[in-house]
């Protein structure tokens, strides 16, 4: 049976690449997309989520809009930053074919998870953790339905951040939510900046994806070229969450207890890992072999239009 999955997302270039990887995988049953602010405000992120599904011929998959602000901080970002004028690299993806579904993302997830078999649905949060923190806090009966979470967020190394020297962008945007999720007792496997940094989209690796020569493979190549051009950085973050679900053997693991600094100081959003051999502790993924990842993506995108 295919793995039932919810992706909580703020698309975003690397979100698009991750969502397409999930759609290309027969092992995954994508139940829907839960949208959160992050790379942009929640409404345009939801529009992008629908554009991503449209491009893959999967417009029927539900898209629900959730939080547009962090739990306690204010969201002051004006634009899309490194994700291009429309948040999807300006590569000319058509406008959204429809509006998002009516129910709030957190209420939608809560209903689905409360009715599901115990420990059956996997969550893949690849934006700020605001929706997930609300889900866990406000809907205690939903937790039972969660199997595990594979999260993109956090910088585990000293001065390894990309939002500040200490903090990764998703955790920094809503550190209070990240702390709630890490302390919730739900098993978390984390793709950090350190996991992703070596997985760089070099011109040769982008060309390997393009060689799959499908509409989606060409779009991924265009997105990566736009992203590398804008950001001057080239690491693939969000797609590693889905790659791990499909091929856990690509990644070595460490275990540890996670904390996130939510106090209002220079270290706001910092991930603190206390290493532990306790198998019930959270899991930190080590960097995979980048060439293996890009070959895998190229191979999988052949399954889409
Ligand atoms: Ca994201």
TrEMBL record:
Record's keyword terms, sorted: Glycosidase, Hydrolase
Chain ranges of the Inosine/uridine-preferring nucleoside hydrolase domain: 5-278
Entry keyword Disulfide bond: no
This protein's record includes keyword Hydrolase: yes
One Pfam family here: IU_nuc_hydro
Gene Ontology molecular-function annotations: hydrolase activity
PANTHER family membership: INOSINE-URIDINE PREFERRING NUCLEOSIDE HYDROLASE, URIDINE NUCLEOSIDASE
Protein name: Nucleoside hydrolase
